[in-house]
Amino acid sequence: MIELLNQLFEIEAKTARLEGVSLSRNIRRMYHELDACGFVAKNPMGEKFTEQRTDVEASLTCDYHDKMKITRVLKPIVYKREGGTLVLVQKGIVMVA
User: pTM of the full predicted structure?
Assistant: First the structure.
């Protein structure tokens, strides 16, 4: 399931760059079905990055400073719903600047 989420995330990112192609309804539907199976994918694009974050693995594009943001997401953060909690099953792979 995690690989399926990763591929779906990549398709979403690629189609966002294409003009005249709209697959957003289909992509939202697939995310909905995965959510029904207990999987949640989170896109952390634009979020603040700190060295204390444990939900992403980051490549820094400059020296570390306290105002860093996630500028590119290669793989989403994936959680699995177990009972009433979300359990991290995949760290996001991100670039930070």
Answer: 0.90
